[in-house]
């Protein structure tokens, strides 16, 4: 007689995917989204909780496991935790800190498209991010209104096709790599058909916070395109770069992707010559060149991250004494209405 007990089945299923969902999507879905859980996981004192919960109401907490695992438990000042833990300072209004500091709402001719730089356009490929960074200049961006459907993409693609001055498509977000590979492969195939487009650039934090995002499916569409490929990562502190990130970068480079990094200069995260110098060295070990070091955009809720311009210049001068020129990021500010970043 055959008895069907569920126990052996469960044992058999353990560790096996129940659906065809890629590993990275499961990690994205499983990210920590509860401020209490974040504090508990890191063994933080209760006094951090009210601030975390208040900030979470404004812009929700989101931290993938792979990023959380690089934080030091018990340290409320951990440079990675500081980027994702809401503090009570967030809810205090600060003069000059506004919802849309870059006035992007004014540069959106088609849904999901931001055209404010000459020769290149930003396409909002995904409204979501894998991690919610407290200092983000888009923390109040109306993504829902700027997240196009497949049909709306057609209008955006028409705009690109009609403007032969555009040579570079920049996939942005949110985080463009939060979109499915099916959607991204479709989009890149459509972009490839536009003859005056030569470059595809992707601004993403996903290879850092969920390195498993760089899987074979992604490498198939990305490696296969005729477009020249540039990926601009977003890493602020050397502790963000672990072996899994280095391996993801190696896979990207093997697929012909040029890797650059942009950082934001953040109080309490990377506001020291030592942290910035180690970051540049670590990036180079991963095959990534430092590109921009942004000063903070004055977005409401992020004033506590600000580093004054004079101090930013001093830090960069200190960095220049230590590093070769090719490891020096460009210190820049984004000024609304300007067609490029402004060097400080
Ligand atoms: C500045 C910026 C760009 C354009 O960058 P360049 O490298 O100066 O062409 C594109 N996307 C984002 C998100 C930016 O901040
Ligand atoms: S990943 Fe980038 S866009 Fe998303 S919250 Fe962080 S800084 Fe903002």
Automatic annotation (TrEMBL):
<keyword id="KW-0663">Pyridoxal phosphate</keyword>
<keyword id="KW-0949">S-adenosyl-L-methionine</keyword>
<feature type="binding site">
    <location>
        <position position="133"/>
    </location>
    <ligand>
        <name>[4Fe-4S] cluster</name>
    </ligand>
</feature>
<keyword id="KW-0411">Iron-sulfur</keyword>
<comment type="similarity">
    <text>Belongs to the radical SAM superfamily. KamA family.</text>
</comment>
<dbReference type="GO" id="GO:0051539">
    <property type="term" value="F:4 iron, 4 sulfur cluster binding"/>
</dbReference>
<keyword id="KW-0408">Iron</keyword>
<dbReference type="InterPro" id="IPR022462">
    <property type="entry name" value="EpmB"/>
</dbReference>
<keyword id="KW-0004">4Fe-4S</keyword>
<protein>
    <recommendedName>
        <fullName>L-lysine 2,3-aminomutase</fullName>
    </recommendedName>
</protein>
<feature type="binding site">
    <location>
        <position position="136"/>
    </location>
    <ligand>
        <name>[4Fe-4S] cluster</name>
    </ligand>
</feature>
<dbReference type="InterPro" id="IPR003739">
    <property type="entry name" value="Lys_aminomutase/Glu_NH3_mut"/>
</dbReference>
<dbReference type="GO" id="GO:0046872">
    <property type="term" value="F:metal ion binding"/>
</dbReference>
<keyword id="KW-0413">Isomerase</keyword>
<dbReference type="InterPro" id="IPR013785">
    <property type="entry name" value="Aldolase_TIM"/>
</dbReference>
<feature type="domain" description="Radical SAM core">
    <location>
        <begin position="115"/>
        <end position="338"/>
    </location>
</feature>
<dbReference type="GO" id="GO:0016853">
    <property type="term" value="F:isomerase activity"/>
</dbReference>
<keyword id="KW-0479">Metal-binding</keyword>
<dbReference type="Pfam" id="PF04055">
    <property type="entry name" value="Radical_SAM"/>
</dbReference>
<feature type="modified residue" description="N6-(pyridoxal phosphate)lysine">
    <location>
        <position position="341"/>
    </location>
</feature>
<feature type="binding site">
    <location>
        <position position="129"/>
    </location>
    <ligand>
        <name>[4Fe-4S] cluster</name>
    </ligand>
</feature>
<dbReference type="InterPro" id="IPR058240">
    <property type="entry name" value="rSAM_sf"/>
</dbReference>
<dbReference type="InterPro" id="IPR007197">
    <property type="entry name" value="rSAM"/>
</dbReference>
